[in-house]
Amino acid sequence: MLHHFTRSIAHIALPDKFTYPFHYTPHPLCVMAADEVQVYLQHQAQWQDELQQGKMFGVLIVQTTEGEIGYLAAFSGILAGKNIHPYFVPPIYDLLQPDGFFKKEEEHISAINHRIRELEEDTSYQKCRQALEEETARCSRLLSQAKAKLKAAKELRDCRRQTEQLSESEQAAMIRESQFQKAELKRLERSLKEHLSSLQKETDTYVSQIEALKNERKSRSATLQQQLFEQFRLLNARGEVKDLCSIFAHTVHKIPPAGAGECAAPKLLQYAYFHHYRPVAMAEFWWGDSPKAEIRHHGHYYPACKGKCEPILGHMLQGLEVEENPLLEDNHRTTVLDIIYEDDYLLIVNKPAGMLSVPGKETADSVYSRIRHLYPDATGPLVVHRLDMATSGLLLIAKTKEVHQNLQAQFSNRSIKKRYTALLEGIVSDEEGTIDLPLCLNPLDRPHQIVDKEHGKPAITRYRVLARTESQTLVAFYPLTGRTHQLRVHSAHSLGLHCPIKGDELYGSKADRLYLHAESLEFTHPVSKEKVTIEVKADFTQQWLPQPKAEQSV
């Protein structure tokens, strides 16, 4: 299971610390190991159709107790219908073993599913349901007709009372008529209810059986899932063991998500600890086509998923010296905010790439905190809208609560005009167009967004090509909505432009920065009511479209 490099690695120094799994640049040894795994995959003809559909693989550089350096390989989930393949580390728990409790109980649940389908498709049950539906509709019509007749008779009596001089006997007769018609309606309601009740009982005979089976299935599935989670007993570098239930007990949802513990990273670490190998560095890469909702590029490296792996790796990496999260590096400690426009009511900042708009969970420095320090007496939330940490450009700040509310309203009714410039990896063939792909958060892999036409919120972007080279396209984006990562997903997704923004680590490939810049804002001043237009060109556009750096008009 331990693989030796086919090429010399003597010239490559080992890293000082283990890979921070949620944001990293692959170590050269990981790249070499991944290359060898990919060569192996290319020679597995029997897997090619499945691999083409896409799968995540991982490599772990390890050092044996004798000081030998090698690597382990793993895949996420199941490959070719099996958990175990000689080239890859085994699963933490093989739920597919024929004599295991999982397969046996799975057979019970499958039998329940089969019985449910039989009952739902039973001819007698279908006839009962159809008869109940038809008779319910017929009875409803009869009842509506009777009520309408009763109402018409009442209106006629009321009209006679208002227009005629009625004798006592005539009035008494009208009262008897009203009482009789009401009694008739009650008798009809009772008769129809009894008729439908008999049909309902026939249907309920089947429904009660189906519901009982579904409740049994639900109970068995929950018990099976609990038993399965308890089988995943995960080690860490200190030799401590925790099962999935214990690991996820302190998370928001308390319960492990489906598939937890079956990703490549936990498999690799578990095997290394079990065989007393020292983990040195790790990387995961995608192989095959991208999923329809997510964005994955063949051969690209990706961080571990947060929904499933963050709690697990939080335990498994204890005892290792792990790299710091590079996103927490204070790269702008000495950066002075570039204030492009300011008056008594608002200001506009040219946010540098890599600075947060508002404080994060682990990072206090942000445009908001800087502005709060500069203007301690300012009221309201200050920041009117947000830019991704990696995006540079114009950010609108309100000095008062009233101005903030006014500007937020302009964003809500889409009267504020925004323009972004982005450098894309690839060629956009059309000169302009509109991208309409609804987006929502991937709950198992925050902060990634996915395209979801059923649950996603509307996300619409207009674009215009500004310039092209043989391999890149400079575009202007005009977002009509403001969803998280909207421009990044619309650029990279196969149903969008299919050209990721240069430097987009989430949806493309890493570079020196994310080549996305909010270059123009146009809005109505909340106090003067004059149109304000502010424009600041991105530094990376100078070689494409040389222009003055800043322009503004009021």
Question: Mind explaining what this structure looks like?
Answer:
This protein has helices spanning 28-42, 48-52, 101-120, 123-163, 168-231, 244-248, 264-274, 306-316, 367-374, 401-412, 486-492; strands at 55-63, 69-75, 233-235, 241-243, 278-287, 301-302, 338-342, 346-351, 392-398, 417-425, 432-436, 439-441, 449-451, 460-468, 472-479, 516-524, 531-536, 550-553. It is an alpha+beta fold. Among the domains are: 28-93 and 232-326, no CATH class; 118-220. The strands form four sheets. Strands 7, 8, 9, 10, 11, 14, 15, 16, 17 and 18 form a ten-stranded mixed β-sheet that branches. Helix 3 runs antiparallel to helix 5 and helix 4 (123-163) packs antiparallel against helix 5.
Number of strands: 18
Strand fraction: 15-25%
Low-confidence region ranges: none
Order of helices and strands: HHEEHHHEEHHEEHEEHEHEEEEEEHEEE
- The average pLDDT value, as a whole number, equals 90
How far the N terminus sits from the C terminus, by CA atoms, comes to 68 Å
Label the overall shape: flat
By DSSP (H or I, 4+ residues per run), the number of helices equals 11
Helix/sheet category = alpha+beta
Q: What is the share of helical residues?
A: 25-40%
> How big is the Rg?
33 Å
How would you characterize the largest beta sheet? 10 strands, mixed
